[in-house]
Design goal:
Layout: E1 7-13, E2 16-29, E3 34-44, E4 47-48, E5 56-60, E6 75-77
Antiparallel strand pairs: 1-2, 1-6, 2-3, 3-4, 3-5
Length: about 80
């Protein structure tokens, strides 16, 4: 269960580990199926983006995106 304060890695695409965002969760909205996080790092095509376009990001909770699969988590708590 995701909670405020968790550090997460949120993958842009299921099954592709070279595009993701790392953030500190600031809000979890179970009823609406998403979370909001403060952006800590953005990686695209395996390269860290030096300038993120936003300070925060919003993403679907695990299991709430139409392409989510149990064998390949899209949102992972890393801290």
């Amino acid at each position: 269960m995701l909670k405020v304060g968790d550090i997460v890695k949120s993958f842009d695409f299921n099954g592709i580990d070279t595009c993701y965002m790392v953030g500190k969760v600031v809000g979890v909205y179970e009823r609406d199926g998403f979370f909001r996080a403060e952006m800590l790092k953005r990686v695209f095509d395996g390269q860290e983006a030096k300038k993120a376009k936003a300070d925060f990001f919003t993403a679907p909770l695990q299991g709430k995106h139409f392409m989510d699969r149990e064998d390949s988590p899209r949102v992972v708590v890393i801290g």
